[in-house]
Amino acid sequence: MSMVHVDGAKIKRLREEQGLTQLYLATAVHVTTDTISRWENRRYPSIKKENGIKLAEALNVQLADILENEIIAEIAAPPPQSTASQPLSAEKQKSGIYKVWPLLMLSLTLLGVFATFAWFSLSSSPRLVITAERSAPEHCIAGQSFPVLIRITGGPADKATAVVIRENLPANATVLKISPEISGGSKKKDTIKWLKKINETAVFAYVISVNGGKDEQIGFHGTAAISGDPNTAPPIGGSSSVRIGHHHWADTDKDNTISDSEILAVHDRYNEIEGINLDINMIEKMWLGSGYKWNESTQMIEILK
């Protein structure tokens, strides 16, 4: 099994400079946060090479950038000369130096040019920018569930990049379903946080119900950040509020019927999202019937024949 010696101080410095957490590194390398802590504190200086490569990718550096200096020097050092070789005379040594000097100067010049080019390329490379947009119905019924989608676009196609989404919910909201699962994030009473890796685009969704009086406006707000630019967390755009009323969220024109275009919109937008149960059967029953109405006394939707 191939092992490498990592420098815990370098790992910690690179992580903190990029604003990354030990949880993010643990998720990227598929280890525990305790393991990351042990690596940073040099309690486990030798790790599997494959884990070292994953760790370097998560930190956006090369593997050599997180190895111990003496290990790198050992790899780069030339092979030792044979002890049986005879020392050169002073005249031959002087002749050899004059022959090697022009080549050494040329090598140093080329190295300087390469370093300058590399710095310019890295500093002038375009910053990765993502957009996050929320999609929620314009209205809902108090106590009845409705879906909210957050679509992330702009991630690189050739490599997965980590994204952190923080969605702040209304104080009177109850979370019923979340997709994808938040094994890499957390859910509190008024906040949902995802930590996931995405390629190009991704959709995050949840189903909630809210309490409140008729015509009360319920607000949403959140942010989305990507690895490599943790200090910039742009707000999630799109829908930012839902009004409480007596019409089902799928009834977009609020005419107490579910039309063909409305049932198609529900299927096109929500039906393929895993883990989200929208009670499609109820919506289809309203579509098949002649209409529906909200019964205030029973707090239920009645389907008209």
Q: Helical amount among residues, as a percent range?
A: 25-40%
Element-by-element helix/strand order: EHHHEHHHEEEEEEEEEEEEHHEE
- State the secondary-structure class: alpha+beta
| Uncertain residue segments | 72-78, 122-126
Average pLDDT metric: 79
Total number of strands: 16
**Beta-sheet strand percentage?**
25-35%
Lateral strand order in the biggest sheet: 7-10-5-3-13
Largest sheet: 5 strands, mixed
Could you say which overall geometry the principal axes of the C-alpha atoms support?
Answer: elongated
Alpha carbon gyration radius: 30 Å
Distance between the termini: 70 Å
Number of helices: 8
Describe what this molecule looks like in 3D.
The chain is α+β, with helices and mostly antiparallel strands and 305 residues long. The chain has eight helices and 16 strands. The chain has a five-stranded mixed sheet, with no helix packed on it. A four-stranded antiparallel sheet has the order 8-9-6-12, with no helix packed on it. It starts with a strand and ends with a strand. The model is unreliable at 72-78 and 122-126 (pLDDT under 50).
Secondary-structure blueprint:
Blueprint: E1 3-5, H1 8-17, H2 22-29, H3 33-40, E2 46-48, H4 49-58, H5 69-76, H6 90-124, E3 131-135, E4 139-141, E5 146-153, E6 161-168, E7 173-179, E8 186-187, E9 191-198, E10 201-210, E11 217-219, E12 221-226, E13 237-238, E14 241-245, H7 260-270, H8 280-288, E15 291-295, E16 300-304
Parallel strand pairs: 3-13, 4-14
Antiparallel strand pairs: 1-2, 3-5, 5-10, 6-9, 6-12, 7-10, 8-9, 11-14, 15-16
Helix pairs in contact: 2-3, 2-4
